[in-house]
Specification:
Keywords: Membrane, Transmembrane, Transmembrane helix. By secondary structure, the protein is an all-alpha fold. Helix content is 80%, strand content 0%.
Length: 282
């Protein structure tokens, strides 16, 4: 473990995030356009999902309704996947940039990958998908548990209380696992393999330090999001719901990029501090 304080991690993360925006403006601008475009498309898809009276009259059978709902769901899922892909590309590039700002010549870290769609990015994206799938799986387990409790004859209040408790426990458990595996993100982005055991060992006893550093790192982003959201609501006229929605989508896109850059650079500094075992891995 390197002799880096958590305060240095925070300052380094904020500094490197700002530097990445300054040094890679084209990448951030392109990511902003794509994130905003997918956000607007998703918003329009939600509006079109509620059929009008005329369309309701034309949909006289349930199969047509199910087909339309399936089409909307697949479109929304595709837009969400595309947006996630854009954010992952940005995160990987920011991580690689931050590592070049603070090189470690004496460490046996994996060789820096340079291509956009290489093994490092594929492993990074696979890691993201695996964690998302784990969260979805935990959600499914909670829903199944609620259904089973209702079928067992438990009252609505009792089943809801038990389900809420189970949901909180599942969220805490998944957050703990995510924190323990957080060092894999910069490791894979730099071209390393998915060394699950090494990541788990490196973060042993450091979960709260990693979690608290990550939370504090994004606090300025939360403040920026709050200010810009209030400004967007103030500038939008009361009768212009569409302009307010677009303004909020712009704010959301900017905040998403800032959040991605900050968490990416923060993960690099945490990797430098705690990732001794991972650095020894290929």
């Amino acid at each position: 473990m390197e002799d880096i304080t958590l305060s240095q991690c925070l300052k380094g993360a904020w500094r490197d995030a700002a530097e990445s925006v300054r040094r890679m403006p084209t990448l951030f601008l392109l990511a902003f356009v794509l994130v905003l475009a997918t956000g607007i498309a998703g918003y329009q898809e939600q509006l079109s999902e509620s059929p009008s009276a005329s369309s309701l009259s034309s949909m006289t059978n349930s199969s047509a309704l199910h087909s339309a709902a399936l089409g909307h769901s697949l479109t929304s899922l595709g837009l969400a996947f595309l947006q996630s892909l854009v954010i992952a590309v940005l995160a990987v590039q920011v991580i690689r940039f931050a590592m070049t700002l603070n090189p470690e010549p004496d460490a046996a870290a994996p060789a820096q990958a340079t291509r956009l769609w290489d093994a490092g990015f594929r492993r990074y994206f696979l890691l993201c998908i695996a964690l998302v799938a784990a969260y979805v799986g935990a959600t499914v387990v909670v829903v199944i548990a609620w259904i089973l409790m209702r079928l067992a004859g438990l009252s609505s209040g009792t089943s809801m209380a038990a389900t809420a408790t189970l949901a909180v426990l599942a969220l805490c458990g998944m957050s703990y696992v995510s924190g323990r595996l957080a060092l894999l993100f910069p490791h894979t982005a730099a071209g390393g393999h998915l060394a699950w055991r090494a990541a788990w060992e490196d973060t042993r006893g450091h979960f709260w330090a990693i979690a608290s550093t990550a939370v504090v790192a994004i606090l300025p982003i939360v403040a920026i999001a709050t200010v810009f959201t209030v400004l967007a609501e103030m500038l939008a006229t009361a009768g212009s719901i569409d302009s307010l929605s677009v303004g909020l989508l712009v704010v959301q896109s900017v905040v998403t990029l800032l959040y991605t850059a900050t968490t990416a650079t923060c993960s690099v500094w945490l990797y430098k501090k705690f990732g001794a075992g991972l650095k020894a891995q290929p």
